[in-house]
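Whiteboard transcription, Tuesday session. T.W. wrote the structure tokens on the left side:
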């Protein structure tokens, strides 16, 4: 991301230096053509993310051998409901009916930019669409409160990312389950269980995560008020885009957690690890001024306009690439025309 931009501009400086040292050999017009092409490529293929560094925050992370889990006041994580710790995972629910469990951090997170990587596993004896109901990853004001939303309370305040494994809505032809989706709540918005959360979802993707023989991961990043969700479920150690939305406003000082629930259908819902990283991001002066306001209530700017469907993202990327190719072709035509005129001067 940021490294790519740095490398490209380093190449640009080297190109310009070489051009400067050979001015007698290279005409001015041609030097500017080369510079134009280099800058165009840099802008086209550079990511809009700034350079960033990440630091693991152990007090907010959960991993083997789960020494920080317990009921004492000194522990960093607390279990709720049917959740239990084993040597291999934190099992939120067993593959049994009518169970719900959760694990919550005791320490509020005051990071401005962060990233959480969740290693999880969902498995059970049920066949396709005869299993349920799914698990959720939370960053919310409330903690340790049972409820119907994947084992957490409804009308929550904060962010919920859900791995929904069972379709409740009868007309679900256009959506393949399991499905990963995200929702931001302000304390008054209810999750529509019967419609699988569609009225309030920010976006999502299908993710075939049940009974996998390889590891499955969920990636949630919040940086510069932009929420990004990705998954790695194919065993290739590659992230796949699921959701990318700007204008998401999340207050600091909320709690991370994970929960799951079963009903008439069931599954084992396991958390192997949750690792939180602090991101240090270089901001422009303008961005710092825009983000000076303290966020007190979670919200999403222009939710109906900002969200992009998968088709919209595809065509945006396609036309961006075509625009870059067009600029490169124009540059080559200009150079070819100059070179042809240069040859004519010798006759």
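and on the right, the sequence the group agreed on:
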């Amino acid at each position: 991301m940021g490294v790519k931009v740095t490398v490209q501009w380093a190449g640009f400086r080297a190109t310009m230096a070489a051009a400067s040292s050979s001015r007698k050999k290279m005409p001015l017009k041609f030097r500017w053509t080369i510079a134009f092409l280099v800058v165009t490529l840099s802008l086209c293929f550079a990511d809009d993310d700034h350079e960033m560094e990440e630091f693991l925050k152990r007090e907010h992370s959960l991993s083997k051998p789960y020494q920080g889990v317990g009921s004492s006041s000194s522990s960093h994580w607390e279990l709720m409901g049917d959740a239990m710790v084993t040597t291999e995972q934190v099992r939120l629910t067993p593959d049994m009916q009518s169970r719900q469990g959760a694990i919550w951090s005791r320490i509020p997170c005051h990071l401005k930019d962060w990233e959480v990587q969740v290693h999880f596993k969902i498995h059970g004896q049920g066949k396709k669409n005869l299993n349920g109901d799914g698990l959720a990853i939370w960053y919310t004001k409330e903690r340790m409160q049972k409820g119907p939303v994947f084992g957490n309370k409804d009308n929550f305040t904060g962010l919920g990312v859900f791995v929904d494994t069972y379709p409740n809505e009868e007309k679900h032809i256009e959506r393949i389950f399991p499905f990963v989706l995200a929702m931001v709540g302000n304390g008054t918005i209810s999750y529509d269980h019967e419609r699988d959360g569609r009225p309030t979802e920010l976006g999502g993707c299908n993710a075939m995560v049940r009974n996998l023989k390889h590891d499955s991961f969920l990636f949630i990043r919040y940086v510069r008020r932009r929420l990004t969700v990705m998954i790695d479920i194919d065993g290739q150690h590659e992230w796949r885009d699921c959701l990318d939305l700007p204008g998401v406003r999340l207050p600091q000082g909320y709690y991370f957690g994970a929960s799951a629930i079963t009903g008439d259908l069931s599954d084992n819902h396991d958390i192997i690890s949750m690792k939180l990283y602090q991101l240090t991001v270089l901001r422009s002066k303008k961005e710092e001024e825009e983000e000076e306001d303290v966020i007190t209530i979670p919200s999403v700017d222009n939710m109906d306009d900002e969200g992009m469907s998968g088709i919209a993202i595809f065509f945006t990327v396609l036309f961006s690439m075509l625009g870059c190719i067009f600029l490169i072709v124009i540059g080559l035509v200009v150079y070819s025309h100059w070179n042809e005129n240069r040859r004519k001067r010798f006759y």
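Someone added at the bottom: The mean pLDDT is 83.
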